[in-house]
Amino acid sequence: MKIYKKSMLIEESDNVAVAVEPIQAGECTLVAGEEITANEYIKEGHKIARTDIEKGAEIIKYGVHIGVATQFIKKGDWVHEHNVYDDFEEINREQRAYYRSMAPDAMDYTIHHKYKKEELGLPETIMGYKRADGSFGIRNQVVVISLVQCSNNAAQRISAACNVPATFVDAACGEFPDRFERTRRGFITTGTHPNTFGVVLLSLGCQQTDPEDVAEEIRKTGRPVVNISIQADGGVTKAIQDGIAAVEDLKRQAEAQKREPCPLSGLIIGGYNGGSAWTSGLSANPVVGEAIDMHLSAGGRAVEVCGRGGYPTTAASYEIGMRLMDIGDFFNEDCTRRGGKGLSQVNPTPGNKAGGLTTMTEKNLGSFKTQGHRRILGILDCGDPVPGAGAWGINQAQGANDAYASTTLAMSGCHICLFTTGRGNPIGNACMTTIKITGNPQTATALEDMIDYSAAPMLYGELSLQESGRELYELLLRVANGEETKAEKLGDYSWTTPHGTSYNGDY
After folding, report:
1. pLDDT at residue 399 greater than cutoff 70
2. pTM of this structure
């Protein structure tokens, strides 16, 4: 019996398939019942030509154009950057011009949920910690906040001694007003995050930040705040001692608070694609999108980073669609000013390409699957709270760093981030709980200490999208009710406040 190597055809109209396992030259794979012999080695995750592709012809994956052949590609050839031109910038300009030309009533902006709430059979409540400001948390953290780089070391020592999260800053002194306002917002949203019970603010004493200003904003939400100044307290050693005592006292208060029933509809979740691999767009990202569809169908809240803009097809109104276009125009112009071409000059990354992603369009198509079938109701600025049920976007463009993106979600009060990672990432967050998902079977096995859920069974047809999405949502519910994530077990409490609206964050 002939043995065929495994491959995946995503859409019937695709002229490439994806190798699910390595295919040596001369070995065969079956694609939609047709035998294809590899003309050369095809690494797993990379594309094999399903048909002959003429020079200048389209490369089709996910049923859409992802690039252009730069030479004749024979059926069975390896399809990658050596024979594909990434025309993302040209296609992006054409699409944006097309949508700009449309009349306000040319599209249907009606929100259609994928499921009916009743058919999902989800619980009405989860067990959380009610806050005085009307919100609720799924964790009851005490957080140490360093208000200037000079107090970072002392904050870290207090955090380590008490086993609680701490946040640090690179500067927070001598900053111009626009940057400093972001820094201040980072401090305040850490202290007012739904998962935060109370905070210890640690400062040097002569920094730009006024500790009482930050403390007052946090206290308005009913949370306890302790202010400690290294200079006023008599030095670093004394400040650390007092900080440890303050944290332990707050921890005792937090432990006395019990979980109570809280509405599932009030839970805020976010999907984020970090470090794409070939499996991301085929398994992990669609599974996250499925879980978000379930949550929104149940009346829940979702938030996403949209600082690179988007198209009206993802908006709930013409006005929001045009706002997404404006954000995208600014972002694209910024990238072009920096490199002369655009984002595709630095994306996909070397790691993405090593994993089989060839063009920016191909990467985007996989990344967007984390958001499910939602339509964005409104655009928030970084640090704005989520105003109600449905899906919301955050205008935050500072990119190329997972810490910026996850902190952006946390600054808007996101309870849980569904974070997909193709190659593995241990990142957590000081306030927001992070569930790590991969579709890469090697990552799931080799890095199991940082992966909470493997979507790899989808690759092999062992689970359907709906089954895997339901599994992930059930895990989300358990985490919301107190089950520890891998990032929490590792004690990874990252927090990196984004400081700009540009890609590099410099303005």
Report:
1. no
2. 0.93
Q: Pairing between strand 390-395 and 376-381?
A: parallel
How far, CA to CA in Å, does 269 sit from each of 131, 288, 289, 406, 412? 18, 10, 11, 11, 11
Sequential DSSP letters for 9-62: -SSTT-SEEEESS-B-TT-EEEETTEEEE-SS-B-TT-EEESS-B-TTPEEEET
Beta bridge partners of 303: 270, 392
Of residues 11, 118, 5, 6, the one with CA closest to residue 362: 11
CATH of the domain spanning 141-256, picked from 3.40.640.10, 3.40.50.300, 3.40.50.2300, 3.30.70.270: 3.40.50.2300
Secondary structure letter of residue 283 according to DSSP: I
pLDDT tens digits along 6-25 = 999 999 999 999 999 999 99
DSSP-based three-state secondary structure for 106? coil
Rounded CA-CA distance 78/42 in Å is 6
Best CA proximity match to 390, nearest among 315, 327, 336, 321: 315
- Taking all residues of the chain, what is their mean pLDDT, rounded to a whole number? 93
Gap between the Cα atoms of 104 and 172, Å rounded: 44
Mode of pairing for the β-strands spanning 16-19 and 47-49: antiparallel
Structure-token match 């849980």, residue found? 416
Residue 43 in this model has a pLDDT that exceeds 70: yes
DSSP states along 151-181: GHHHHHHHHHHHT--EE--S--SS--HHHHH
Q: What is the CATH number of domain 7-85?
A: 2.30.130.110
